[in-house]
Amino acid sequence: MNIIISNDDGISSEGLYRLYLASKDLGKVIVVAPDRERSTISRALTMHRPFRVWKYHKFENWYYTDATPVTCVYIGKDIILKKDKVDLILSGINRGPNLGEDVNYSGTLAVASEAIFLNASGIAFSLATFTNFNWDTAEKVARLILEKYKKYGLPKRVALNVNIPNVDFKKIRGIKLTRLSKKKYHEGIVERKDPWNRPYYWLGATTPDWECEEGTDYWAIKNNFISITPISLDITAYEHLETIKSYEEV
């Protein structure tokens, strides 16, 4: 099995190393990650400038680049594996959750869901905290999910978005298959003043929040369950095709 691992936190991320440890016995593992943090960059590709790739000196088959996270997938596929088939694309383990509608901005999920285009399987892992990371729990959960993948596989054109509670592994209550929660939107841009009283702005300076309905990814994390959400790239609103059928009228 040929496995590509990447992330949007950068090559030196502890989560990347823990995901490598959890997956290295499954097959041939290639790690290609950005040279620095590239969070919230979503599906961006590095297409309008050249990029470089370097070997990472700490581990065999590790590489880093000044390109975007999704571009890392193609570096692994076309430059390193060359003509060998990619079987599994893993992403993470992200510092911070990837929950609800926010996944549309996530470079972590974008990496894993690129597998849909490549006829491969994809799994994204995120540790649901921004501080005091419990990496031991995250690694154990990644191993657990990958064992299930090895046993059961995944359907075509589906990727998994896995969020992990930041608690001791013994406190995890189980696994829940979930849907994406809806985001409670707050004021997005915050205005502040510099020492000369000139305005400057922060986007995303407020703490995100989601609706806590049972069955959602946010509810699962709040209740110490591992959340697994199957993700598709088909964003057609099928339930509204009939609703707007009048647009076809000439």
Quick overview:
This protein has 250 residues and is an alpha/beta fold.
User: Would you identify the CATH H-level superfamily?
Assistant: Survival protein SurE-like phosphatase/nucleotidase
Q: What is the average per-residue confidence, as pLDDT, rounded to a whole number?
A: 92
Q: What is the tally of beta strands?
A: 13
Biggest sheet, in brief?
A: 9 strands, mixed
Helix content class: 10-25%
Low-confidence stretches: none
Question: In oligomeric terms, what are we looking at?
Answer: single chain
- Rg value: 19 Å
- Please provide the ordered H/E string of secondary-structure elements: EHEEEHEHEHEEEEEEHE
Descriptors:
9-stranded mixed beta sheet, two-stranded antiparallel sheet, 250 residues, Stationary-phase Survival Protein Sure Homolog, Chain: A, alpha/beta
Would you kindly provide a written description of the structure presented here, covering whatever features stand out?
The chain has a single domain, classed as 3-Layer(aba) Sandwich (Stationary-phase Survival Protein Sure Homolog, Chain: A). The chain has five helices and 13 strands. The chain is of the alpha/beta class and 250 residues long. The radius of gyration is 19 Å and the shape is globular. Strand 3 and strand 4 form a beta hairpin. Helices cover 21% and strands 25% of the residues. It has a nine-stranded mixed β-sheet. The protein has a two-stranded antiparallel ribbon with strand order 9-12. The chain has a two-stranded antiparallel sheet with strand order 10-11. Helix 1 packs parallel to helix 4 and helix 2 packs parallel to helix 3.
